[in-house]
Amino acid sequence: MAKISLQLQLGIDLGTSNTLVYLKNRGIIFEEPSVIAFDKRNQTIIAIGEMAKKMMGRAPQNISVVKPINFGVVTDFEATQAYLSKILETLKKEYISFLKPIAVIGIPLNLTEVQMRGVIEAGLSVGCKKVYLIEQPLAAALGGNLEVNTSNGLMIVDIGGGTTEIAVISLGGIVIGKSIKIAGDRFNQSFLNYVRLRYNLIVGESQIEEAKISIGSIVGKNNFYTLKGRDAITTLPKEVVVSSQDLREAIATNLEDLVDEIKEILNSTPADLIGDIVNNGIYLTGGGSLIKGLEEYLAKELNVRINLLENPLHSVVLGLGKILENFTYYKNLCLN
User: 169, 154 in Cβ contact below 8 A?
Assistant: First the structure.
């Protein structure tokens, strides 16, 4: 039986890898890959989320599998619109509401006005009455139960699928920050290239991601994973056992670049706030933060304590939820 609600109030973490939705008074109600599959013959939606992701690299010619968000930016407006419409369509079957929904959507830092307008238009086009935007590091800090409205400075490093958001926060705003494309997808691509160059093996992205999750470790003992693909020279089927050491070598340059980007932000941070960061440490979150040993690696390279937020996969969407649950208090954090 459908539940009755005056208005659906949604927090949407529209990520490159996954989309999460928080419904006010209910919590997280949707968590699926940001992937949609169409039948090209009649442009009907076949699947979204996990079902669509399983079709990547396997679909027949008449099926188009699309990732509409790349590096945190809406790159396929129509696919994003269709994806959000499908989510709302499902919600409306479960909840009867009398007013059009409102949405608070997390966005990467440094989006242009055109890109922000694209996010807003995507929300309005699927029936939302109002769309508010908030920068993801602020949302992640709220979701990690950090106090962002005080004068005490805190630093967030949010390693997502498409981007890593690095920000210093004080008095409810971003003092300095940037969005960089050194994140989960870049790790995957580096590992994919490494496997092809070292082992002459061609494999799909989904298998590479599974291997990264399974054996991902920057320190400690080696774990192993069997990759199955095609020999780049003979074109015949081939299997290769890769190790954690292979992954470490593959993403070593990415990690060095990440450290350099964090150092750049630290070097540009006002001196008064640096003292707070030294006292409190840097807060780490996002799916990419779950690579084993990353905390220790960053602590050593940056000479500062690293604190992993309690729920790194959900910190942004939980922060969006906190805004919805107390919108009057947190509305000032939104950009529009």
Answer: yes
- Pairing verdict, β 282-285 and 154-159: parallel
The verdict on domain 3-139+315-333 having CATH code 3.30.420.40 is yes
Domain 147-182+250-308 fold:
Nucleotidyltransferase; domain 5 (3.30.420)
Residue 173 DSSP SS3: strand
pLDDT tens track for 308-326: 999 999 999 999 999 999 9
Q: Residue 321: which residues within 8 A CB-CB, separation 6 or more?
A: 11, 22, 24, 27, 28, 143
Q: What contacts 93, CB < 8 A, 6 or more positions away?
A: 2
d(CA 231, CA 239) in angstroms, rounded, equals 9
> Based on the number of CB atoms within 10 Å of its own CB, is 1 exposed (0-12), middle (13-18) or buried (19 or more)?
exposed
CA torsion sign, 92 to 95 to 98 to 101? negative
CA count, 13 A, side-chain hemisphere, 333: 32
Q: What CATH homologous superfamily does 185-247 map to?
A: ATPase, substrate binding domain, subdomain 4 (3.90.640.10)
Q: How far apart are CA 303 and CA 263, in angstroms?
A: 10
| Contacts of residue 305, Cβ cutoff 8 Å, sequence gap at least 6 | 280, 281, 282, 299
271-309 per-position pLDDT tens digit: 999 999 999 999 999 999 999 999 999 999 999 999 999
pTM: 0.92
Q: Residue 219's pLDDT is what?
A: 82
DSSP state of 227: E
CA distance 309 to 289: 9
- Token representation of residue 65: 């599998």
Other CB atoms closer than 10 Å to residue 303's CB: what's the count? 9
Q: DSSP letters of 58-81? A: T--TTEEEE--EETTEE--HHHHH
Tokens of 247: 């992954």
pLDDT per position as a tens digit, 200-251:
999 998 899 999 999 988 887 889 999 999 999 999 999 999 999 999 999 9
So where are the chain's domains? Answer: 3-139+315-333, 147-182+250-308, 185-247
